[in-house]
Each structure stands twice: as structure tokens, then as C-alpha cells.
Amino acid sequence: MSELDVSLGLLAALVGCGAVLGLDAASWPQVMVSRPIVAATLGGALLGDAASGFLVGAVLELLGLGHAPYGAAVYPETGPAGLLAGAGLAAGGGAAIGPFLVAVASGWAIGWIGAISVRMQRSLNERLLAAGDLAAPTKRLERRHRIAMVLDALRAGTLTAAFAIPVMWVVRLAAGIPTIGGVVAASALLVVGMGLAGGAGAGGMRRRAMDPLLFLAGGAIALTLIVTWW
Amino acid sequence: MKPTRSDQVSSFLRCFAVQGSWNYRSLVAGGLANAMLPLLRRIYAGNPVRLRAAVERHLEPFNGHPYLCPMAVTALARLEHDGESPEQIDRFRSVLRAPLGAVGDELVWATWRPFCLLLSITIFWLWGRPWAAVGIFFFFYNIGHVWLRVWSFRRGWTEGLGVGKDLRDPPWARVLPSIKSLNLLLIGSAVVSVSGLVAPDTLNRWGVIVALTVAALLGYARPALGERLAASLVLAAPVVLALLGA
């Protein structure tokens, strides 16, 4: 684990945060601290770079805007994923394009691995609630409900513990790679931008005739401000 | 017996954990019954047989948006309190399920949450302060979130069987299209600004402008393709970078 110096305290803080963020997504209390912009900023801040954390969180947020928890839909688990992507990028030394893409990749992948763990947890809940008579005494229902939530937090904490060091290690590895050339950089930017527009646009928000015009107007305003600030 | 203020507070707080035991058979029913328990215990005080029957009834499959589930909790408890027949309660329960999900999904997941997130991203871009942007998201989002839970909890108890009209014509119906329009504007802006923030130094200004413009247009026109390409790129990035570094 060359150059990577992760204290036990930091690892414990990450695992604790991962458990709380994982619990927030669906089980309790759903105040949305599990969103990537919050989780990744927290992850970045734990390693001393909240701004880089927010940026990687914003990209994960836009990529996943179309994946909402409608009904029984499967969607990426954003809490531990955002936390580790933000922490990884901060550990890798900030938002250069190489480490940045690797941090986004890690967050995206952990989000979907997290989704599998959520499915497993929900199948376990099914068995937990099916066993025995829950209505008599009624305290049994309360106990099983609490157990399900504790298991959810343990699941998210375990997911965070499993990926914390690998993510920081792989992002730091990417930071050591020489700067990439203009054409590769432009292609990367093009695809990231397309992905953001695609991920965000797929969220069921493109229904009316004026929607494309509003989207283009927003893009044009941002582009004008970027050019003005140069 | 009518539930007391403290039963209602206890039930309301349990609504925050309504999805705590979500599963593929009964969906949100475990959480729903758990949140109803303080109310049912009071309503059926001294009658364990009817309490047991009511809990069993509400452990049957149910789903709904978590922030609107408080409406189901109190409306169903109201029916139990008013002595409606089990058949009537079951019918009402199954009718309530679809609109509670659809109305909540449309309001929260498709409109309010994206709006607050996009606002936060825009503030970060303009101001550059990550914690201020996170704080603004958390504050505004949860004002709407907690208000919705309180509103639905109260309406469920006061309206009982009549909650249907609240769901057909909710108080936010008129502002929702405006927020959706704002969301489109903010998405356009966020796609360009966030991509611009990660633009590498090796790229000249015209390169950035052309890449961002083409990306936004193509991504909007072909969202599925954009998403797949981006997912492929981010997943291939570690391998490509490892090869470049080797």
C-alpha cells in the first residue's frame, strides 16, 4: 500500500459515516444526507478537501438523476459510494482529470454493488418478517423492524469498510500518471458532459415541447458565464 | 378510545422509519404497521383480539411514497377508530396505495429533490463554497420533506376516507409545473458548469466550449447513449490510466 497512510481512526470514521449514510437512503430518516453531493463532500472533508468531494458528488448526482426509487425500482446506493469517491479523490490529491475519472468510476461501481447488497438485505427482511406471529405480541413486530434497520446500517458499514482502502489506493495510483493530451482530454470531457446530460435528462423531466428550449437556455447561460469569467 | 397527543407524536416519529423493514413480499407494510402501533394500541386498549386482527390486517402488502405514508397511517387508524368494517378498511387500503405512490414520486423524486440538488450544484459553481451549497440543499429539501410528512399525517386523521380529494388536487399542484421548468433550466446549466469545472488544463478554451456544447446537445438528444458512453468511460478509465502509466 505504497504512500497511502490511512489511520485506524480515519477508517473508523469512514465506516461509521458509511453506515449512517446507508441507513438514511431508505430505512431512516431519509433526510437525504445519503445524496452524493453531501456524502462526497463529507468524504472529501474527512481527508481535507471538501471542494473536490463536492465536485465528484455533483458528477455522480447528475449521472444518477434519472435513477430514482420509484416503487420497487433498483437504483444505485449513493451514500457509501459518494463518501468513498469523495474521500478517494481527496486522498489522490484533488480534481485532475485522471484521478477524477477514477473517483467517479469507483463511486458509480460501488453504487451499483451497493444496490445488490440492498436487494439481499430486502430479501432478508422478507424472511425476518415472515417468521413467527408478528401481531401477538405486537412488541415482536417492533423488535423485528428495529433489527432490520440495524442490519441495514451494518450492511452499509461493511460495504464502506470493504472498499475504503481499495478506492483511495486506485485513485492515488491514477494521480501519479502523466498529464493526458488535448484530444484525449476533449474526448473525456465530451463523454462526461454527454453522460451528465443523458443521466439528468433521463429522469422523466423531458415531457413538454418547451423542455428542450429550457435545457438549451440553461446551458447557454452557463457557457456565457464561463466565457465572461475567462 | 381516541389516540392521545403523545400517541400521535410517537406514531409520527415512527413514520420516519416507515421503510426500515422494506421487503419484496409485503413492501412497506412492516413499517406501516409499526408506525400505526401507538395509535392502534390506544384505539383497541383492553381488547387484544381486535388489536391483533388490526395489526395482521396492516401487515398485508402495502406500498406508497415514504413521505406520504403518514397519510395512510393516520387515515387507516381513523377508520379503525370510527369502527369501519374490516372489508371497508381493506378496500380503502388497496385504493390508497397507487395514488400515494404516484403523487409522492412525482412531487418528491421527480421534482423537489432534483430542484434542491440542482440549486445546490449551481450555488457551488457560482460561489465555490462546498459546505454552504450542501447546507442550502439540506435546509431547503428538508423544509419541504418535513412539511409534507406533517401535512399528510394531519390530513389523514382529519379526512379519513376523504383523503382522495387531497391526493387528486394537492396544494402543490399549481407550482409543480414551474419547478419542473426551472429544473430543465438548471440541468442545462449544471451539465455545462460541472463539466467545465472538471475540464483539464491541457485543453484550450475553444476545445472546452466545443466539447461542452456538443456534449450537452448530444446528451440531451440521446440520453440513453450518453449515459452508456459515460458509464463505459468511467469504468474503463482505471484500466486506460493504468496502461498509460505502465
Structural account:
The complex is a heterodimer of chains A (230) and B (246). Chain A has helices spanning 8-26, 36-46, 50-63, 78-91, 97-130, 139-175, 182-201, 211-229. By secondary structure, chain A is mainly alpha-helical. In chain A, helix 4 (78-91) packs antiparallel against helix 5 (97-130) and helix 4 (78-91) runs parallel beside helix 6. The model of chain A has no long low-confidence stretch (mean pLDDT 87). By secondary structure, chain B is mainly alpha-helical. The longest helix of chain B has 42 residues, at 86-127. Chain B is elongated. The mean pLDDT of chain B is 91. At the A-B interface, helix 2, helix 3, helix 5, helix 6 and helix 7 of A face helix 2, helix 3, helix 5, helix 6 and helix 8 of B.
Quick description:
With 230 residues, chain A is mostly helical. Chain A has eight helices and no strands. In chain A, helix 1 packs antiparallel against helix 4 and helix 5 runs antiparallel to helix 6.
